[in-house]
């Protein structure tokens, strides 16, 4: 190939497209010419490189292997008004990092150049920015990595409103690629504000095809995002990962005062301690209103329709991460009400099989499991005992009536209408994107066998999983029609659970705590031990925290956390099925607790003991639980 040009002329056309070959197809890489100072071939003519000038140096960007180059064309760019606007298409995004540096972590931003082919539906885009990894389990455990990127200039991408911050979701666990999309489409149709949009893109990273990604907005405060006051408003999430238990060093999180929910303040950032305290205290006002089941009071503080919509969407799609909880957003404008949304992260929904979850891709097995149960306030028949903040209002007759009406209003269309939207994405993905993505990231799972030998290997095919998803949603919707229609509407007596009382005497720490029987595994308070009390009694920081049996001997941790145990009726540590109450936590000084709803009853009283240890010194923490 001969050198087509070295320097660009001032009167060159607005856009240039470099075409490369991959999988027997030509892929356009649109480049806005004015952003470059020159193009050249390297000495051995294997690579075409574009340069863009920075203030102090020349930055090397956009390398194209000549082996894949097909042609170069020039054209005038068209406005979005002149495009087709088929948002269901699968577009193409080329990302070239500075020096072709790999993206290997979530903390470091890497300078890069973006080239986005709108394929005649939307305007092309090219420009500079930064990129890094994102996500929690999806980044840590899965081969196909998700990314977050930031443009240097606010820009519209594929018809979406101008912004700098964007996400590329890998959806690796989701063979259909449609689980987030269905949730987003349904939430927007249900009227939930600020809901994210979807554009599918096939991504090339430094010239290598890395698969199909879901391009969507970052959840943040902004004119084109969560449009609330940047100073007086607050955007936060119910999130175990970003909360105080799993992110104890962070300064943007807290345990809520009434229901002990893990809260993370996303924005504003860099809040003072006084402002964080103010946010926590203000949220506690809402918590106490919910706990009282006072409909009028809750309605004055929270947007009840958004609360109902988020609860119904979680149940409909069986998103069990509300149990943690994780990725559940809420915002409040200055002088406004608490409002749920935007919705986020739905690849743990659709009856995901959590056994061997880091390698698993199995969904859609059972459409009859319930998050809230047949009687949500009591969690009767529930697969999970989620925090009572999400269930207590079902003890209010007026709330249940509104909940039933809201479901009746959407029931006829919630599956039919939104699956019709999803089918449009699927039809476009079936034009080759599914095949290329599966080839790049073959999805297989081996079950059975013995010590890694033998077993049956399942290869997941998108078309087969799409059909399973469609059938599951149909059956799920029909099943919930009967369940929700039969929710009890009787007013439930409010059980007031006071915060645990902690006292120190005779070289030990004593705790008196009450539990709500209907709270089951998820109670509304935590036992918070004063760190200075422990260090004062031990003469320093503890080296361990262990459960004790009734005879004072060290027991065994049968709870899910790092510290704690399930305790039976005698105060001994025991297996879950035989026990009555539990303590568990990953923190030394703040413990969750709950009761086994099948083994306990109102009026029960249990005394259990935890022990701090530092060398040969020990401090007992004696906890007496009364179940109401």
Task: Write a concise synopsis of the structure shown.
The protein is of the alpha+beta class.
Any overview of this molecule?
A hairpin with a 7-residue loop joins strand 8 and strand 9. This protein folds into three domains: 15-217, no CATH class; 234-485, no CATH class; 501-627, Immunoglobulin-like. The strands form seven sheets. It has a seven-stranded mixed beta barrel. It has helices at 137-141, 179-189, 273-292, 295-301, 304-316, 397-414, 416-429, 433-440, 462-485, 531-538; strands at 15-22, 25-32, 38-41, 47-53, 58-65, 69-75, 90-97, 110-117, 125-133, 147-157, 160-169, 199-205, 208-217, 234-238, 253-255, 262-267, 328-332, 338-340, 444-447, 456-459, 501-505, 508-515, 527-528, 544-548, 563-567, 581-585, 590-595, 605-614, 617-627. 41% of the residues are buried. With 628 residues, the protein is α+β, with helices and mostly antiparallel strands.
Q: Can you tell me the number of structural domains?
A: 3
**What is the alpha-carbon Rg in Å?**
28 Å
Low-confidence stretches: 1-12
Helical stretch count?
Answer: 10
- Fraction of residues in β-strands: 25-35%
What's the helical proportion of residues?
10-25%
- Anisotropy-based shape: globular
Q: Note the gap between the termini.
A: 82 Å
Structural class: alpha+beta
How do the strands line up in the largest sheet?
7-8-9-10-11-13-12
Quote the average pLDDT.
89
Structure summary, number of beta strands = 29
The main β sheet shows up as:
7 strands, mixed, barrel
């Amino acid at each position: 190939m001969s050198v087509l040009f070295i320097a660009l002329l001032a009167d060159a056309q607005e856009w240039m497209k470099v075409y490369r070959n991959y999988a027997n197809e030509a892929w356009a890489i649109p480049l806005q010419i004015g952003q470059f100072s020159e193009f050249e071939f390297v000495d051995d003519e294997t690579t075409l490189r574009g340069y863009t000038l920075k203030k102090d140096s020349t930055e090397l960007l956009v390398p194209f292997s000549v082996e894949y180059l097909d042609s170069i064309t020039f054209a005038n760019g068209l406005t979005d008004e002149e495009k087709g606007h088929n948002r269901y298409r699968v577009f193409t995004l080329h990302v070239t990092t500075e020096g072709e540096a790999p993206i290997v972590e979530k903390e470091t931003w890497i300078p890069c150049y973006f080239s986005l082919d709108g394929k005649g539906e939307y305007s092309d885009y090219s420009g500079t920015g930064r990129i890094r990894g994102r996500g929690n389990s999806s980044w840590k455990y899965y081969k196909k990595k998700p990314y977050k990127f930031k443009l240097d200039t606010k820009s519209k991408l594929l018809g979406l409103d101008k912004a700098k911050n964007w996400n590329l979701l890998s959806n690796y666990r989701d063979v259909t690629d449609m689980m987030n999309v269905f949730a987003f489409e349904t939430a927007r149709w249900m009227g939930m504000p600020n809901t994210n949009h979807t554009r599918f893109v096939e991504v090339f990273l430094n010239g290598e095809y890395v698969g199909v990604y879901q391009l969507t907005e970052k959840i943040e405060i902004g004119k084109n995002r969560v449009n609330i006051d940047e100073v007086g408003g607050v955007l936060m999430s119910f999130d175990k990962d970003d909360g105080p238990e799993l992110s104890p060093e962070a300064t943007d999180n807290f345990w809520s005062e009434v229901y002990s929910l893990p809260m993370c303040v996303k924005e504003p950032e860099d809040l003072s301690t006084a402002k964080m305290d103010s946010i926590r205290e203000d949220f506690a006002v809402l918590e106490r209103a919910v706990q009282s089941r006072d409909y009028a009071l809750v309605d004055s503080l929270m947007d009840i329709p958004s609360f109902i919509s988020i609860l119904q969407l979680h149940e409909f799609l069986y998103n069990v991460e509300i149990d943690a909880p994780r990725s559940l957003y809420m915002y409040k404008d200055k002088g406004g009400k608490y409002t749920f949304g935007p919705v986020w992260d739905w690849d743990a929904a659709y009856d995901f099989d959590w056994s061997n979850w880091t390698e698993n891709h199995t969904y859609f097995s059972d459409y009859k499991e319930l998050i809230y149960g047949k009687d949500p306030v009591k969690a009767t028949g529930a697969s999970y005992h989620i925090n009572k903040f999400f269930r207590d209002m079902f003890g209010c007759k007026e709330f249940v009536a509104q909940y039933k009406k809201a479901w009746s209003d959407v029931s006829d269309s919630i599956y039919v209408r939104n699956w019709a939207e999803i089918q449009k994405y699927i039809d476009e993905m079936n034009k080759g994107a599914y095949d290329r993505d599966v080839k790049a990231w073959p999805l297989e799972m081996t079950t059975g066998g013995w010590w890694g030998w033998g077993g049956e290997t399942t290869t997941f095919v998108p078309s087969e999983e799409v059909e399973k998803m469609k059938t599951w949603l149909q059956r799920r919707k029909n099943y919930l029609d009967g369940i929700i229609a039969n929710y009890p509407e009787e007013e439930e007596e409010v059980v007031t659970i006071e915060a645990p009382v902690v006292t120190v005497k005779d070289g030990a720490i004593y705790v008196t705590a009450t539990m709500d029987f209907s709270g089951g595994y998820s109670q509304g308070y935590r036992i918070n031990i004063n760190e200075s009390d422990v260090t004062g009694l031990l003469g320093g920081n503890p080296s361990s925290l262990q459960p004790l049996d009734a005879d004072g001997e060290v027991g065994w941790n049968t709870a899910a956390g790092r510290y704690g145990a399930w305790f039976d009726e005698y105060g001994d540590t025991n297996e879950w099925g035989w026990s009555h109450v539990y303590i568990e936590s990953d923190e030394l000084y703040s413990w969750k607790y709950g009761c086994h709803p099948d083994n306990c009853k109102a009026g029960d009283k249990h005394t259990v003991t935890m022990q701090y240890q530092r060398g040969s010194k020990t401090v007992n923490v004696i906890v007496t639980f009364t179940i109401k």
